[in-house]
């Protein structure tokens, strides 16, 4: 591909030229960071040509467009991925070698754009990659947060949050597009004006404050197909740049306030994962990027189409969770207030253009906004939602006459609150969950009433991940090995991996496969030594749990089990024990106290165990600081065991589970989220499944919970471990350090239900599954086969498949081929 545009020598020249232009330096005077900027500009140059080509092709074909609206895009670094998708990685590596630079080191200069928290944001990024690769016209729309998710430092075992100033040195892959700026209005009041000529009321927002939304475009490079789509993230600027000569006091204040509004709105990403905090600024962020995105989409549509009634034929707005649900009301506002449509016409268009994805059933993540806050900030949008609600209630009443219970449960506005999920369901044509089990739970439990009313709207789209980043880029050794055996078709057609199944019993293949795993473990061990100062044994089992820290994900159960193993080793030093390294990586939301205590506990346990000479290095515990997309790629490649141990029914899908599987790590997990489908693909004999089922958990929950005390009283191993939380074993004698964790499990003085996430109930079956892991690992041939089969059976979990299902069943997009 690179050859189509310029040769290696030309590339080298262009890097040198860029260094000169940017820094007035010769290449051998430049720092690695400067070379990164210069290389990125050279690559961007190629991308821009394809970007223009794509634009032209879209203008010619006029395909249907999906706008993927998301508060979060967890993109990870772009340079390596762009080179991969341009099929220029190896050529550029060589070119840089010849210039005396190492591409890996250059890649490491790039800040990790972390405009997302976890699974939901990363899914959006994988989807963009697949959309471009499959040749669909798609725009990601989001926010250009000046600070992404915080960087995590571990100090004295505790998480400390450090601001992530990712734009500090300028980000080479973005393009500012001030010519497409949009005005977004907040506050004020609505004046109604009767138009005698048409007999209609006009609604005019007055006394408002506004900000200018400025788009920055990032290229999304498709794999080997010259398509370059766009991620458009909006920045905010004050509308009338602060004028010092404004002596009128009212004006002066307004100018300052508008300036502040613009500054604050895009300042920082809220760092919560699966938890909703009703902050006004968050609501501002939502309306800000939605209003700008929808205005831009409508303007674009009108440029090449004469009739807005055709909008649903040409556009879908996909809402990534409820955060962009304002879309429903904003589209209504534009169609009714600005395009002068009747309510009925506008509603028909809106409800055939919007579609909603649900990512969680956790009650605390459901978005509800107090109506005072909402109506003050967005007076016109609120009026529209009131009208949507009024009509929706009429519909409910006509379907279920006299059923007040339905109204109470389903209303969009109820009890002083606006319920965003209800608005998203009423205002769209599709509602999807993100794994089979999750969608079934939505239909049978959380959204039961809505499912009964609109069964045709509900559908499942099991998540997926892009193999281009998480195998081709993250695990080059395995990627090459696979290509040597089955060709490179898997890069764009992942189910071809099943061709590897014939090698499952092949001794040579097994050895090569495990040898690659070993090399990846050595690479990770080196990283751990450099970053943690801990020496780990690459011959030990690398048992890995990396994901956001949340109680339902049960990192606590994992570390309690480590404590339990340690007790066993201490009690029975002679007992055969296969060396294990337990690796954790997780950020806790800054305000999530119990999650942060769990991080401290993991580090405290690590401290004691790693420094206990008497156990001969049989057990090591590592907490990898600042888990993020870039180190994730390396971690998945090096894992032997994939910990997916959420309380059944709580993890909507999970996507890390798929990345581990792709890289040949069997799942140790519960029957939750997409784990269920992973087991379906790879077979129960190639996974380690344990614990309560989702039905059992839901059953307990609906019947008042369960009693963890019975486990504490009857099981000495469990009691021992729990007592160690409060007897100073891991806290240098401090009895209180982990008291709250202890209490959370046994409810001795807390208000929540004890052990909300069934850790004690699942503990012993988890420990038993861990024993099975050890037993399986001891049998080298068996393990190699298992690992290989995990890779071979992971084809379903490509985001290319997920996107094709969205296209076929929800979006109905047209395929685009450059040059056709
Ligand atoms: C995640 N949700 C799910 N939310 O937990 C996970 O099972 C699923 O695989 C993934 O979505 C993709 O579908 C998630 O990451 C958030 O982080 C929200 C951020 C904003 C506040 C509410 C939670």
TrEMBL record:
Name the EC number(s).
2.4.1.1
Q: Which domain of life is it from?
A: Bacteria
Any one annotated GO CC term:
cytoplasm
Transmembrane annotation, as ranges: none
Spell out the reaction equation it catalyses. Answer: [(1->4)-alpha-D-glucosyl](n) + phosphate = [(1->4)-alpha-D-glucosyl](n-1) + alpha-D-glucose 1-phosphate
Q: Which UniProt keywords apply?
A: Allosteric enzyme, Carbohydrate metabolism, Glycosyltransferase, Pyridoxal phosphate, Transferase
Q: Which cofactor does it need?
A: pyridoxal 5'-phosphate
* In-chain residues carrying the UniProt-annotated modification N6-(pyridoxal phosphate)lysine: 659
Write out the GO MF terms.
Answer: glycogen phosphorylase activity; pyridoxal phosphate binding
Q: Does the keyword Glycosyltransferase apply?
A: yes
- One example of a Gene Ontology biological process annotation: glycogen catabolic process
- Specify the signal sequence span: none
Q: What class of enzyme is it?
A: transferase
SUPFAM superfamilies, per database record: UDP-Glycosyltransferase/glycogen phosphorylase
Please explain the role this protein plays, according to its UniProt record.
Allosteric enzyme that catalyzes the rate-limiting step in glycogen catabolism, the phosphorolytic cleavage of glycogen to produce glucose-1-phosphate, and plays a central role in maintaining cellular and organismal glucose homeostasis. Phosphorylase is an important allosteric enzyme in carbohydrate metabolism. Enzymes from different sources differ in their regulatory mechanisms and in their natural substrates. However, all known phosphorylases share catalytic and structural properties.
Q: Which family, according to the similarity comment?
A: Belongs to the glycogen phosphorylase family.
The protein in question is named Alpha-1,4 glucan phosphorylase
Provide the species name.
Blautia argi
The organism's lineage is:
Bacteria, Bacillati, Bacillota, Clostridia, Lachnospirales
